[in-house]
Structures are given as C-alpha cells and as structure tokens.
Amino acid sequence: MSLPHAILIALLEKPSSGLGLTRRFDRSIGYFWSATHQQIYRELGKLEAEGQIRALPAAQPTRGQKKSYEVLPAGRAELARWTAASQDPKPHRDAMLLRLRAAAVVGTAGLEADLRRHLDLHRRQLAEYEEIEKRDFPPGNDSAQARLQHLVLRAGIELETFWTQWLTEALAELPVVEDAPAGPAP
To answer: Which residues fall within 8 angstroms of residue 177, CB to CB, at 6 or more apart?
Structure first.
C-alpha cells in the first residue's frame, strides 16, 4: 500500500515524469522504499485513474514526449490521511540472524565470509549516507522540510552504524562457536 504514497510524496516534492521518479527513487526514497521502473509506471496509471495525480499539459504536443505528473487535491488528501493514520511496526525478519541461530546448532562453516561481505556492504552504505548528509544537509539548512528529510537519512545512518558494529561483534564471536553443541537450544 505504501508505494502509491511514496510516489505522491515524490511528486509533491517535485512534479516529475515516470523516468524522473525512477531516478529519484534510485537516489533517495529507494533507500528505504524500493520500486522498479515498471511498478512506478503501473502506480502512476492507477493514481491518475483515481484522480489523485494528473499529467501536466505539454507546451507543445510531441509524439513520445515524457509526461510529467503533479499531485491533485485528492492525492494530497490521501497522503495526509495516510500520514496521520496509526500503523504498527512490521516484525523484523532477517535471514542473517536466522543463519546465525542455525550456526549455533550445525556449526559455522562458511559463515565468516558472508558476515565479512555483509559488513563491507553495510560500511559502503554507511559511507554513502554520510556523503549524502554532507552534500544535502549543510549546517544552517533548518527548514521544517529539511529537518524531517534529514531525520529520515539519520535513521539510515543509525541503522547502518548498528549493523557495522553488530557484524564486527559477530565476527569477533564467531571463532568461539566451533562445532554444533549437543542438545536442544533454549
């Protein structure tokens, strides 16, 4: 249900074409709500059919020209309704955590390399977020919109910081767990 809302947010920030939205998803929203090019175009069609967005009129009609979209009052109202609605957090599911639990009963063979790969991926993501923070949120940019957008980015930074610290700890603990212990786990 949230992809249409992510598109409405992006269009309220800046009217865009489907291709423009795809690029913006790749650079910002996609870090926490990903979507393919096809999903974005499908949702644009639905949102337009529901009267929540419209294609902006072209200055000169041209065959094959990209359509840019803007949010209509019904779309803004839907986004405001969704923003104000109560939602429970989603349960966390992570295959790496499950694999570590499995390693406790079957052994850790082969796990170290993947833990190191995950650590490298999280370090790179953290560095990318920190670069975005330097570029997009310089001191003095204190508008309400910038503060909220920065808050979202800081959540990503904190999550990546957590994962890099946790994976470092997991790698330090890994040699301690050698072979599978006998008996059931608690």
So the answer is: 103, 104, 107, 108
